[in-house]
């Protein structure tokens, strides 16, 4: 197994986790300023990790 693929899978899992955490925060938010900042920070980080992990897995060639 290629190290880049493992790192890409790890980034993808972290991105999914951050997006799920953002959804949990969104469901329990009361609309205060602190809640909105958390939603934005975790949502953007989750999207960045998820897209970078997916692109890293997709572009890495599987060589045996």
Structural commentary:
The chain is an all-alpha fold and 64 residues long. It has helices at residues 3-27, 33-59. It has one domain (3-59). It contains 2 helices and no strands. α1 packs antiparallel against α2 (33-59). The radius of gyration is 15 Å and the shape is rod-shaped.
Essential attributes:
2 helices, about 60 residues, mainly alpha, transmembrane helix, transmembrane
How many independent structural domains? Answer: 1
Instruction: Report Rg.
Output: 15 Å
Unreliable residue runs: none
Order of secondary-structure elements: HH
List the helices and strands and how they pair.
Blueprint: H1 3-27, H2 33-59
Helix pairs in contact: 1-2
Summarize the structure.
The chain is an all-alpha fold.
């Amino acid at each position: 197994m290629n190290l880049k693929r493992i790192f890409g899978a790890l980034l993808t899992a972290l991105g999914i986790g951050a997006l799920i955490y953002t959804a949990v925060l969104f469901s329990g938010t009361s609309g205060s300023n602190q809640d909105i900042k958390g939603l934005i920070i975790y949502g953007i980080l989750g999207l960045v990790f998820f897209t970078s992990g997916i692109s890293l897995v997709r572009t890495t060639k599987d060589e045996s």
